[in-house]
Design goal:
single chain, about 280 residues, alpha+beta, four-stranded antiparallel β-sheet, 9 helices, about 30% helix, about 20% strand, globular, DNA-binding
DNA sequence: AGCCTATGCGAAC
DNA sequence: TTCGCCTAGGCTG
C-alpha cells in the first residue's frame, strides 16, 4: 500500500476527520505511550504528507512524525457507535467521540512514529526531492540530479532525495509506460523523456490519491479491450509489469522480466524497454 | 492453520 | 550488510 499516494490520501482523510478537533491520543501497544500522553487531548491543527512521510501537527508545535515503511497501516474508521478495544499491536490511536458517533484511527506496524518539533519536519522536507503530488514541486531539482548521474534511472526514481513519493510500483510502471530500460544511466536520458515521466507521475499518482489504487494500464490495454480476464489478485489495479514476472507483456507478448536492483525487486519488459542508447542515436 | 511475500527504511551489526 | 517492524493478503495443505 504505502507509496506517496497512500500517505497523501491518508493526510486528507485524517484532516477531514480530526483536524480542528480535540483528539484523544493513546498507544495501546505502549511503545508510543509516553509521547502520546504529551499530545493527548490537544487540538490537531494539520495533517499533511511529504513523499512517504506523514506529519500530524498538534497545537503548541507538537508534531507526530509517521512513516509506514513496508508493512505499516493506518486505518481510519468513522461513524462508529463507540471506540472499540484495540485489535493487534496498535502503536498509535487517535480518537474523537461526538454526540452520536465516534471516529478513530489505528496505526500498526509503522517503521516510524515519533513526537518531534517543527525543526524535524523542516529537516525531513529539506532532504526530500520534489513530490509529484505537491503543486509547488520543482521537477527541475530532480532533473538536475538525474541528468548528472551515472546511476541507473530505476535506482534514481526510488531515491527519495531525487523524487519523493515514488515506490516500487510507480517506478516499474512509469518506466514501462515510457519504454525506458531501468538500468539505463540517468545522465543518458533526454530532458523530454524525464519531463514526460514526471508529468505522467503527476497524473498517475494523483489518480492513486483519488482511487486508493495504483492503476497504470492505458484503456487500449485493459482486459476488456484485449479480451483477457481482469486481474483479481494483488488487491491493486491493473499494471503492466509490477509482479508480473514471466507473464506475457500486455503490449508485445514477450515475458516480463525480473531482477533485484539495490535490494528491491525490479520488473520490466526487455522488448518494450530497450532504449539504452537513444542519446547516441539521436 | 501455517507459510510466504511485500508498494520501505531506520537501526544494529 | 542484515535485521526488525510484527501487518495483511494470497497461496498451500
Amino acid at each position: 500500500m504505502p507509496e506517496g499516494h497512500t500517505l497523501r490520501r491518508l493526510a486528507g482523510a485524517l484532516t477531514e476527520v480530526f483536524v480542528g478537533r480535540r483528539v484523544q491520543v493513546s498507544s495501546p501497544q505502549g511503545r508510543f505511550a509516553a509521547d502520546a500522553e504529551v499530545v493527548d487531548g490537544s487540538v490537531l491543527v494539520d495533517a499533511d504528507s511529504a513523499g512517504k512521510h506523514l506529519f500530524l501537527e498538534f497545537e503548541h508545535d507538537h508534531l507526530v512524525h509517521v512513516h509506514l515503511g513496508l508493512i505499516g497501516r493506518f486505518d481510519i474508521t468513522t461513524g462508529a457507535v463507540e471506540v472499540p478495544p484495540p485489535i493487534g499491536q496498535v502503536r498509535l490511536r487517535l480518537a474523537w467521540v461526538g454526540d452520536d458517533k465516534a471516529s478513530y484511527a489505528d496505526l500498526r506496524g509503522a517503521i516510524l512514529c515519533d513526537l518531534v518539533g517543527p525543526s524535524k519536519r523542516d529537516e525531513v522536507l529539506a532532504r526530500l526531492g520534489p513530490d509529484p503530488l505537491r503543486g509547488d514541486a520543482d521537477p527541475g531539482r530532480a532533473w538536475a540530479r538525474i541528468s548528472r548521474s551515472a546511476r541507473p534511472i530505476g535506482d534514481l526514481l526510488m531515491d527519495q532525495a531525487v523524487i519523493a513519493g515514488v515506490g516500487n510500483v510507480y517506478r516499474a510502471e512509469v518506466l514501462f509506460r515510457h519504454r525506458i530500460h531501468p538500468l539505463r544511466a540517468g545522465r543518458t536520458l533526454r530532458r523530454g523523456q524525464f519531463q514526460a515521466m514526471w508529468d505522467d507521475l503527476v497524473v498517475l499518482m494523483g489518480e492513486g490519491v483519488r482511487t486508493g489504487r495504483i492503476e497504470t494500464v492505458r484503456p487500449e490495454h485493459l482486459p476488456e479491450a484485449m479480451g483477457r480476464a481482469p486481474r483479481t489478485d494483488r488487491g491493486g489495479g491493473e499494471v503492466y509489469v509490477y509482479r508480473r514476472t514471466g507473464q506475457p507483456c500486455l503490449v508485445c507478448g514477450s515475458h516480463v522480466r525480473a531482477d533485484v536492483l539495490v535490494g528491491r525487486n525490479l520488473f520490466w519488459c526487455s522488448q518494450c524497454q530497450r532504449t539504452f542508447r537513444s542519446r547516441a542515436v539521436e
